[in-house]
Predict the structure.
Amino acid sequence: MTYPEAMVVGLIQGVTELFPVSSLGHNVLIPALIGGSWAQDLSVSAPESPYLAFIVGLHVATAAAMILYFWRDWLRLVSGFVSSLRERRIATPDQRLAWMIILATIPVGIAGLALEHAFRVFFSKPVPTALFLALNGLILLGGERVRRRARPAAAAAQTLAAQPVVAVATPGPSSGATTPDPRRLDRPDQPQAAAGSEREAEIARAVAADGRLSAMTYRGAVLIGSAQIFALLPGISRDGIVTVTGMLRGVSREDAVRFSFLLSAPVILAAGVLKIPDLTGPLGAGIGGQVLVGSLLSFVGAYLSVRFLTRYFARDRSLAPFGIYCLLAGLGSLVFYLVAR
């Protein structure tokens, strides 16, 4: 594996892991479309390819970027989980959401252990990957179509949620100051205080979103989380399929995206950690520098991507551009590969 290959793949992995466009699909198609040594060096389907060890490092770096960006949220959720065990009850929104994430992760964990190798060997080839990527585009576009049809029924709730920010008294030992009520900071169209408080407003929206997500049933959370199993197929996006499934279950697009991000971090991290022996074993021999460079770029790409997407969907933006991209990229890759071959 060369350094240019490591740099390109590392950056693409970090970006596409969070965008609903399938990182595995891109990791299969791009080397195949470039051809030559790229197709040989970067073959995901090869059983003993050093590329697998390289991907391990990229996954760990991507998960680290997500955990860093959402560190306040994870600290709050882990605290909720620990307090739930200590108190032997599930009462607060943080406690409920922490258990939902755990339960929703179990199905894809079992499926990954049982099916990942077979799916990778049999499906991680250019033709099926291109078809799955096009299918991913149809899923995203279909999710947006269903959402538009269901939107009138939710108009009253959206109108209520769009009321202006109100200040509530926050009792304290030394001050009678007021702070914005985080329940009113859950919509991007509400006027915020200043540009410097954008991150604070984003944090408040996250708390409000977690409160809404915790109101789901455990069955619904597990059903949404189980959709990640389809992402074992190269070309199907984990975040995309989870978001669309959440939208079909009545969750808002922004909240569904957030839930997909919260579910992705432990799954990606676990997948990387379980395969660390590949990285430290014979498969990883001689590519330590490439892994380091690729992982660094993957970390940066993932951090910037989650930052962009969090703000993109907070403005009620559509999945349609990503769906169109996947449909065209999938069909275009299919035609190009078949003709070039």
